[in-house]
Amino acid sequence: MGDGDDGPIDSALTHSTYVKAAAKAGGSPVVLPQLDPAGIDDLLDAVPAVIVVGGPDVGPERYGDERDERTVVAAPERDEFDLALARRCVERNHPLLAICRGVQVLNVALGGSLVQHVDEHMVRARYNESVHTVDLEPGSVVAKVMGSERPEVNSLHHQALDRLGDRVRAVGWSPDRLVEAVEVDGAPNVLGVQWHPELLRHRPEHLALFEHLLQLAGG
User: Is 196 a catalytic residue?
Assistant: First the structure.
């Protein structure tokens, strides 16, 4: 939101760290406006790759659950757009990197559900440091891209994937066995991670996720 002469007005914003990571990887990032989902195909025709970013929680009614008091939901319009965008990226095998809320959106978009609260995974003070490792499935795309089967990651989430959506395949787990990375069967250009690689872009293995996205986009 921004301030206008007549009060607050809607604004299209995202954290600059996503922009910096995409630019450091060699891209020319643009912030996508939240549009009517009916226009998503036109949007994807114009944008060769997409990052679905972090943010507030997905409304639990989207996966058939009642809201936990610790769940802070996004605006319904954002959920509607993000879910439709993720679903269409899968249908088109459009290059997509889904980060934090983004991987949760991806899972819900494909029929999955979320755990509405987990303890000890929101470590804000160490946003650009190692908090725990992730065990990646050997041979997975994420492991190949990062060049590691046990990368060190940050941790800035209080929700997690529960029931996996249709075609969603877990390929990475935290030490307490929460899903930290996913791929989608039949859509190899779609990846999702629960941590925030944009805040670790100073480490080559995390920047590699953005470089891979750009390679898929033909950049």
Answer: yes
Global model pTM greater than 0.85: yes
Given 180, 183, 198, 211, the catalytic residue: 198
Residue 166 near residue 107, CB atoms below 8 Å: no
Residue listed under structure tokens 């009614």: 61
In whole angstroms, what is the distance from residue 184 CA to residue 64 CA? 22
Cα 168 to Cα 155: distance, rounded to the nearest angstrom: 21
Q: Residue 9 and residue 2: Cα distance in Å, rounded?
A: 5
The pair of three-digit structure tokens given for residue 102, joined into one six-digit string: 């983004």
Q: Which of 94, 100, 206, 211 is catalytic?
A: 100
Residue 202 known to be catalytic:
no
- For the chain, what is the largest distance between any 2 Cα atoms, rounded to a whole number of angstroms? 56
What integer is the mean pLDDT of 160-181? 98
Q: Which residues contact 104 (CB under 8 A, 6 or more apart)?
A: 57, 58, 114, 159, 160, 161
Residue 121 catalytic? no
Structure confidence at residue 205 (pLDDT): 98
For residue 6, pLDDT beyond 70: no
From residue 69, give the alpha-carbon distance in Å to each of 46, 57, 73, 157.
Answer: 39, 12, 10, 16
pLDDT at 217 over 50: yes
